[in-house]
Amino acid sequence: MNMQEAAERADGLLDEVFDGIHPAVQWTHGPTTTGSCDVTRRRVVMTVVSEDRRGSFLGLVDRFWRSRYSIKAVNKDPDVPAIFAQTGDGFGVSLMIGGQGQAFFEVDSPCVRKSKVAAPVSKPNGPDYAGAEVIPRPNVRSDFWSVGAP
User: Fold this and answer.
1) Which residues pair with 33 in a beta bridge?
2) Which residues contact 18 (CB under 8 A, 6 or more apart)?
């Protein structure tokens, strides 16, 4: 597997988890980074996930990943909770909650052959901030996920 193939695999893993989130949340691509032999794909949730719904959101992703992957760690910090898992083929998948409850998904490849890496082909289901210097805080309201948020 080369870096482009690893990036495509990472995109597929991200597509799977977002397909499993109901009701759906809006997301945009985060930056893609490459190392000497690895690639990381990121997605940032633009839907406001309120503090009241954060546990439900984390639980939904946790159950989805536990049914498919090995859970490596869970950070239960109330301000910055996170879940870290690993696929059977060595890809690291993670969900971290940051400022204002914004959710960040990341997939890290194992070491693969060096190659060029193209931009993701998946289209965000909301505004596309790919290439933006700064991705804004979550700014999309959901009748479900944003309940109780100011």
Assistant:
1) 40
2) 24, 25, 27, 43, 105, 125
Give the pLDDT confidence of 1-57 residue by residue, as tens digits. Answer: 999 999 999 999 999 999 999 999 999 999 999 999 999 999 999 999 999 999 999
C-alpha distances in angstroms, 10 versus 41, 50, 61, 66?
Answer: 6, 27, 16, 17
Alpha-carbon distance of 66 to 86, in angstroms, equals 10
Q: What is the pLDDT of residues 61-70, one digit of tens each?
A: 999 999 999 9
The pTM for the full model equals 0.95
Which domains does the chain possess?
3-22+37-108 (3.30.160)
Burial of 46 (0-12, 13-18, 19+ CB in 10 A): buried
Secondary structure string (H, E, C) spanning 114-143: CCCCCCCCCCCCCCCCCCCCCCCCCCECCC
Cα 70 from Cα 22, distance rounded (Å): 22
